[in-house]
Every structure is written in structure tokens, then in C-alpha cells.
Amino acid sequence: MAKVLIYATAVCPYCVRAEQLLRAKGATEIEKVRIDLEPARREEMMERTGRRTVPQIYIGDTHVGGCDDLYELDRKGGLVPLLAA
User: Fold this and answer.
1) Which domain, by its residues, includes 65?
2) What's the rounded Cα separation, in Å, for the pair 71 and 34?
């Protein structure tokens, strides 16, 4: 199972939805980076992704994007294979 990294905040419902989907699809190793508690990690997220919004999700080395991107990937059948890689 691929390692998952989520840049998130405490009050983000999209972050919760994304994590729920990932767990439902079998993800067990999810590292959650709370950018509201670690401002330096927010800068890291913006440099890596070019985006300012959360969640920002990585599966392995692949930047999936945000919650809507994750659900779209799942609808297209790409989430489970990416997690299995």
C-alpha cells in the first residue's frame, strides 16, 4: 500500500471527506500535516503543489490534488491502483 500525505487543517470538511475515502479504499498509512499548526509546512505545501487550498494529497510521489480531484480519480478507477502501487 502506498504512503499517503495530506496537507490539512483542523476545520476543513474536505480534508475529512478525503481521509474517509482514502481509508475506505484501504489506505492505512496516512500522514496528516496540519498546516494550521505548522506554518512552515504551509509554505512547503505551496512550493510543492503551487496551490494554497487544503487538502493537498500525495499518494506515493504522485500529487493527486484536492478532495474533488481525489473523488474524480476514484470515479475514473484510478485511486485503488495508485494506492496499491
Assistant:
1) 4-84
2) 21
Tally of structural domains, the chain: 1
The Cα angle at residue 78 between residues 17 and 67, in degrees rounded to 5: 25
* Model confidence, pTM: 0.94
Q: Residue 47 is part of a domain; what is its CATH number?
A: 3.40.30.10
* Sheet arrangement for strand 4-8: 30-34, 4-8, 56-59, 62-65
Residues 15-34 pLDDT 10s = 999 999 999 999 999 999 99
Residue owning grid cell 482514502? 22
CA atoms within 13 A on the CB side of 84: 6
* Spatial contact of 34 and 10, defined as CB atoms under 8 Å apart: yes
